[in-house]
Amino acid sequence: MQHDLETRRSDLVALVERYAANRTEYIKSTYGETSLRVEFLDPLFCILGWDVNNEAGHSIYTREVIHEANVTVDDEDSAHANKKPDYAFRLGGETKFFLEAKKPSVNIVERREPAFQARRYGWNGNHAIAVLSNFEDLSIYDCGYRPTDDQGASFARIACYHFDELVEHFDEIYSLLSKEAVANGSLDNVDAREQAVKVPFDDLFLGQISSWRGDIALDVYNHYKVSEQDRLNQFTQTLLNRIIFLRVCEDRSFEDEEELLRIASFEELREVFAAADAKYDSGLFNYLDDAPWKVSDYLLISIFQDLYYPESSYDFNVVQPHVIGHIYEEFLSERVYIEDGRVRFESTPEAVESNGVVPTPKDITDAIVANTLREVSYPCKVADVCCGSGNFLLSSYEYLVSKELTRVISEGDASVELIERPSGLDLPFWRKRQILTEAIYGVDINPLAVEVAQLSLVLRLLEGCSGEELDAFRSNTGCKLLPNLSDNIKCGNSLVGYSYFDFDPSATNNIDSLRAVRPFDWASEFPFGGFDAIVGNPPYIRVQNLARYIPQEYEFYKSRHCDLKIASAQLLDKYMLFVERGLSLLSASGRLGTIIPNKFMTIATGKQLRGLLTSRYHVSRIVDFGTLQVFPGRSTYTCILIATPEDVSDFTRLQVASISDFVGSPTEGGATYPSTDLTREAWSFPPEALSEHLAKIADKCTKLSDMANVFVGLQTSNDAAYIIEPTAETDGVYSFEDMNGHHSKVEKALCRPCLLDVSFEPYGTPTPNKQIIFPYYFSCGRAKLIPFDRLQVEYPNACEYLLSIKEKLESRAFSNRSRGDDWYRFGRSQSLGKFSGNPHLIWPVLSLGPKYVNDQSGKVMFTGGGNGPYYGMELKEETPEAIEYVQAALSYWLTEALVRSKTSVFRGDYYAHGKQFVTELPIRRIDFSNNADVALHARIVATVRTLNDLVSKRASSSSKSDAELYTRSIAAAERNLKSDMDMLYGVPTGLEGAVMS
Predict the structure, then answer these.
(1) CATH number, domain at 67?
(2) Residue 795's domain spans which residues?
(3) Mean pLDDT of the chain
(4) pLDDT for the residue 195
C-alpha cells in the first residue's frame, strides 16, 4: 500500500506541475468547466482511487462515479440553480458525497454563491460532506449545517487547499476523500466546529413535516370537531404526501417551477391535485376526495412558503427516496392526537416496545437484498412482509432494475431500447414501470406506512427520467404516468390471517378490534404461487409485551387458531414469527433474507426457530455482525439470515470483521459448513481444524454434564431486600442501610457471604463482598425455610426488618407452592441446597475469557437465573476426577475456543458462558488404570491448587513488587499447566495457531 501511495503522490505532483505550467491560460474566463473536469478534476479523483472513467464497465446503477452534463448556471443566483451536482461518488450504489465543479476563473474561496450551491447539494443529499473545486482551490464542507443565504464562503468549511498545497497535504486529503478512506468510514465523524447548531436535512425535514401535521390536524379539528383520530391522521398525512410529491416533481422539472407558491386557497390546491391525478394516476390523490374537510388557506400558504427558498434550502432534485423513507419511519412512529383543543404527539405502541424507530441503513438493506436476490432476476416477485416506509422494497427495485439493465446490454435484447442518459445507458421508463408493478410487493399493518411506501417507490421510478421521456410514454401508450400500487403494497397484519375471525367472531362488528389487529389473508390478496424472495427487517418485540397494548393479538397467537407453529413457544420474539411467515410464503426455490438478532442461534428461546430452519427449511447463508453495530445509536447484535425451502447440502457463514468491507462486497466470503451441522440445539461454528481434532479424541472425552451439575444462583425475586452491605457488627448483629434507606439490623447467624458484581480473575477463590439474609437451615444437604415463630424467637432483628418490607415481599411473583405464611422465603427454590458445603466452581456469565474460581467452602452464595450474573458447578458423586482438574479443563484454551464459537458476543467483546454453552464441552476423562493419565491428573490438580493460591495471594497483596512476583509465578504455573493439558488432549503442533487465528 505504501508503494501505491507513493505512486499516487507522484501522479499528483505531475498533475499539479502541469496545471502550474499553463495556469495563466486556465484562470481566464474562456477556459471552460468541461475542460477543467476532463483535464484536472477527473485525474485528481482517479489518483484518490475512484473509478472516475468507469474502467470497470459498470452500469449506471453500480458505477462508482456519476457525471452529470455540464449545465450553464448563473453563479450569481446559484440558490435557484436547479441542476444536479457535477459528480456523485458512490460505494455499493449509495452516494457518499457530491463534488461541484467551477471554472478556475471563479473565486470559490471568497464567493458565497458556489459554496452555497455545493453545500445545498450535500445537505439535501443528507451527506456528511460536499466538495467544491476548480482545481485552483479545493474546499471541503461539513453538510450537517443547513445552508442559508447569509453564510459566507468559509462557513462550515472543513478545509481549503490551494493547488500548490495539494501535494503537501496529500496524506490528509487521501485520508478523507479517497475511495479507500471513505469505504473505511472516514466521513463518519466530520465536524467543522462551527458555533451554529447542526441541522442535517433529515432532522429539519422531520421536524417540519411533524409540525405541519400538527397544524393541519388542529386546523381541521377546530373547524369540524373531528372525533375520529385515525381518519384525521390519515387525512393530514395524505395531504402532506401529495404536497411533497408535487414539490419533488417541480425540482425534477416534471411540473412548472414554483407552482405550489402560486396557490392561494384549498380549492385551488384541489384543482392542482385533480390535474396531477389525471397525469400521474397511481392512486396518490384518491383519499382526499373522500374527506369532507378543508384546510385554512393561510396555513397552506405558510406550508408552501416553507418548502421554497429563501424560507428553506430544499432541493428535492438530489434528495434520495430512501432518505425520505428513513424520515418517514420516524415520522410514523408517532400519531397526532387532539386533546382539550391542543395537539399532542404520542408514540405508537410498536415504537414504545422497540424503544423507538431506527431505520435500517441503506447500505445494509442493499447488502441484504444482494444476498437474497443473487440468483433472482426479473420476471420475479419480491416482497417485504413488514415493509414500513418501503426501504427494502426500494433496494429490491433498484437491484432488479440494475440486473435487468446488465442483462439487456449483455444479451443485446432488441425488445428493450435503452435510453442514453448523461450518466450512461439506462432502461426506458416503461421497463422500469413494468418491473415495479410486476415484481415489487409489500404489506404493513400501518396504513400510513403503506401510503409512504407507495410514495417512495413512485418517486424512485421517476428518478433520472426526463420530462420528454415521460411525455412520450403517455403519448405512445395512452396510460397515466404512474402505476397504481394499491394492488402491490397493501395494509394488513402479515402474521394474523382470517382464522382470527374463528378465534373472535365478534371482531367483524368491532371496528376498533379490526383496526388493532387488521387480519390479512395472503392467498386471496396475492393469488399467485409463492414469492421468489422475501426481504426485510422485522420488529424485535417480545410477543408477551403485546399483551399490554394489543391483548387480543397476543391471545390469538397462543390459541389453536394461529397457524404459526413458533407462536406456541412460551417465550419468543415477534421477529421469529415474521421469519416463519416469510418462509411459508416462498416458492419452492425462493429465498428469505432478513436481519435479526444473532442470539437466536444460541439462546434457549431460539430453539423452535432453529428447529424450523433445520427441519422444514434450510439455511443457505449467515452473515454474523457479532458486536459490530449496524443500527446507529443502538446496542443491537444482529446477523443476516438467508433461508429457503429448497434442499441445500451446505451453507456459508461470514463473520464480519468490518462493516465497510462487507457492504463493499456483500455476497463474497465466508466459511462453508454442511447443513447437517445445524440442528435445534445451539449453533456453533468452531474452526475446522478444531472440529477435526476433537473428532479424533472423541472416544477419550465426555460432556461436562456427564461429570457435573451446572446450576444457577439463588433467586430471591428481590435482591435488594435480601442482599446487604453491613456497616457495623455488634454482638453478632449486623447494622446496614436497607432498601428503603432506613437503618436496620439483622443477626449475623442468619446471613451468608455473597457475591454481587464481583469481577473474577482466572483461577483463584471467590471473595465475597456482601451478605445475604438467608432464612433457611440445612438438613441432610437440603435447605428448609425457618418457621416464622422460630424466626421471631431466634432472629428478632431480622424478623423486625422483614416485617417492615412485608408488603414488598408479598408482591413478588411466587410459585403456586406459596402457603401464605412463607411470604419471607425466596421467590424460587432452585439451587438452595447447592450452598450447604460441597465444593463448587463459580464463574461469571459474561467475560472476556475463562474465569472459573474454586469455592472449596461451598458456602459463598450468589444470585441469578438463566442470565446470570454467575453460574456454579459441582461434581457428581460418582465422578472420580478432582474439581481442580475440571477447573483446568474448563479454563483450557481448546474448550474456551468452543465456548466462543457457540456463544453470542456483546459490546466490548464480552461473550456468554451460560449453561447451554458449557454443559456440552468435551472434558478429557482420566483413565485411572493408566499410570500416565494418573500422573498427569495429579500434576494438573497440584498446579491448579498452586494457581488458586497464587491468584488469591496476589489479590490480597499490599505491595506492588510482591504482586509482580506473584504475577510471574502465575505465568510460569499457567505455562506448565498448558503443556500438561496439551499433552492430555493430544494437541498437535500448529493446532492452537490455526484455531486462534
Answers:
(1) 3.90.1570
(2) 708-984
(3) 90
(4) 67
